[in-house]
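Worked example 4.2. Below are the chains of a multi-component assembly; read each line carefully before continuing.
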Amino acid sequence: EIVMTQSPATLSVSPGERGTLSCRASQSVSSNLAWYQQKPGQAPRLLIYGASTRATGIPARFSGSGSGTEFTLTISSLQSEDFAVYYCQQYNNWPRRFTFGPGTKVDIK
Amino acid sequence: EVQLVESGGGLVQPGGSLRLSCAASGFIFNTYSMNWVRQAPGKGLEWVSYISSSSTTIYYADSVKGRFIISRDNAKNSLYLQMNSLRAEDTALYYCARDLTFGGVIAHYFDYWGQGTLVTVSS
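Applying the procedure described above to all two chains together yields the following structure tokens:
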């Protein structure tokens, strides 16, 4: 079973600053990785898939990188609406399992 | 506009059963795979189950395998989750989510989500 970890658990950032979130897989997931944003009381929103492709309507300040076991989500200049919890998610070839990381909370410094 | 609306949640005793539904609109339902994802109160996300567009391929998380059954009715644009032998640890908000897999291109990411239906397992 592939285990996903995320760091840090909480990231305190000032508006306008850059935020860097990490996600690590216990074994290679190739580029089969996505990032989601979830605000309180809302469903998650897909931000990035295939490790680096922005989903429809996602602002360019969100970017994803990495492959294999190490992945990064970068928010180039944090806006007030970006303070939320961010989850990474992978899928592997066999057995097919779709696993989320525990999340990183981005809050206002 | 894509819409996913879950229903069927509620309070159930341990060992009981519940059937969740998800009504889909705004897209051609029978061309997309679908998923159930859950979130325990104050916790993270956990994928539960996947079903392909024609129901030929189904996957389950180990935590629900043998107890939950996913199904769909393409004529009714609906997705279902039959939950049996429920446990306290199944208490969660259950989301249905569309799979990005389309046209034979595998991409098990969740691009649209409903607002969820709450299942509480308690005596």
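Take a moment to check your reading of the output against the notes. Chain A has no helices and eleven strands. Chain A touches chain B at residues 1, 32, 34, 36, 38, 43-46, 49-50, 55-56, 87, 89, 91, 95-103 (CB under 8 Å).
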